[in-house]
Amino acid sequence: AGLALQELGRWDEAIHRLSLAAAHDSLATHVLFYLGAAQEQAARALGDSSYFHQAAASFEQLLELDPEDAYALNYLGYMYAEDGIRLEDAVDLLHRAVALEPENGAFLDSLGWAYFRLGEAGRAWDYLEQALRHIGPDFGAGERAVILQHVGDVALALGDPGAARAHWEAALELDPDDVALRAKLQALPQADQ
Fold this sequence. Notes:
The chain is mostly helical.
């Protein structure tokens, strides 16, 4: 029921149901993962930071039970990186995820993004190049678009607006409704095309 409510964007109800499920079986790490994901998505959808902190607590509780849950390590690390907080913790969590699944393109992207947010564009580039090589057929268009956008952001930071444009245009083909990405492309000087 919690997952169905989450799909409908009924965040409070979804979180309530998933919290009940987690309380019923406090060792069910998959329930904690779903709860943390719902809380994080609610934070983004509603702009409510209290949900973000609840999500972090849910993932931390999960990782106490299973410190080698690569997907929880990645989720929490990416949350921190995306929010620009606890960036050294994010890098640590994401290194642990990548060590468990070194060819997981999503994990490599998350680690690259964390390094970028930490101000280390060169290191970010190394991981993002690896992420591009490990984009599998199971990646959806949205996931591929995010990785391409990250590569474009890092390329721009490294002084290569042409590469930034190429990656952002490829991302926009996959996600044509991304208004922020379209604005970034329009902000690039025309001479860099």
